[in-house]
Amino acid sequence: MKKVLSIIFIIVFAFSLIGCAPKGDPSQVMNDYYQNIKDGNIEGAYDKLSEASKKNFSKEDFIKWQNTSKEVSILKEAKVEKSNEYKDKDLDGIKYKNVVEFNITERTQDLYENKENSSTYKRNVVNDNGTWKVYRGKENGKEMVAGTLNNLALMYSEGKGKTKDSNQAAILFNEALKYDKECTNAYFGLGVVYYDLERYDESINLINTFISKEKDNKQKSLGYNALGNSYSGKNDNNKAKECYNKALELDPNDQYAKTNLQDLK
């Protein structure tokens, strides 16, 4: 009888452990994640991620993203503050037994604008198969790599934060588009760079692609301005004028289009 009771006790005790929070401090896990990023230990930061985050972001892409990001902005501080705890919490369609929510306040040095920025957002540490792991949320790793490459290319294109280098900008814009064919801004940026390099036909093709993908009228207006510039570079002033007028149709306050039309006269 005692043996039976012992077995029942062991079974009940074992079931009581199911769903218990993992050992360790989730705050430390989150702090370690950001410290690894600050220290340049990108693989160490990646190891802190949950399986779901790793599915969204391959290790290769995560390393590429972080290494490129360091050329655009520098993480100076990440303040981690616990805000809430949940049990059986659903995050983007995934149910976790334990979730700890944090408010993250980042202080970064923007190398493009040469200024310090601050941003606050929420991030979670989850019970991932019995271990505390960082869940970054639903994201597309390749899109994020493309976006950061686009930003770095812009720095070379405009000579802000980097020495102006149109050829290097073109390489980076092209690389961004290899990661994400829907990176709309990369089509525009590459089109402008090819205009600078007097590769007008390629510029026209890229800007047309940008216009076809862009939905915002003000952005489309910028596209038609750039398109007009490339036609002007080819000495096709009739086409250039048509593009500048289209830019004004989309945005009557577009000063670039007004100036460009004046220059054609």
UniProtKB/TrEMBL annotation:
Q: Which Pfam families match?
A: TPR_1 (PF00515), TPR_16 (PF13432)
The record's section on InterPro entries has: Sel1-like, TPR-like_helical_dom_sf, TPR_rpt
Instruction: From the UniProt record, list the TPR repeat ranges.
Output: 184-217, 221-254
Q: Which residues form a coiled coil?
A: none
Q: Where is the signal peptide?
A: 1-21
| Cited PANTHER family | CELL DIVISION CYCLE 16,23,27, CELL DIVISION CYCLE PROTEIN 27 HOMOLOG
Protein's name in the database: Uncharacterized protein
* Highest classification ranks of the organism: Bacteria, Bacillati, Bacillota, Clostridia, Eubacteriales
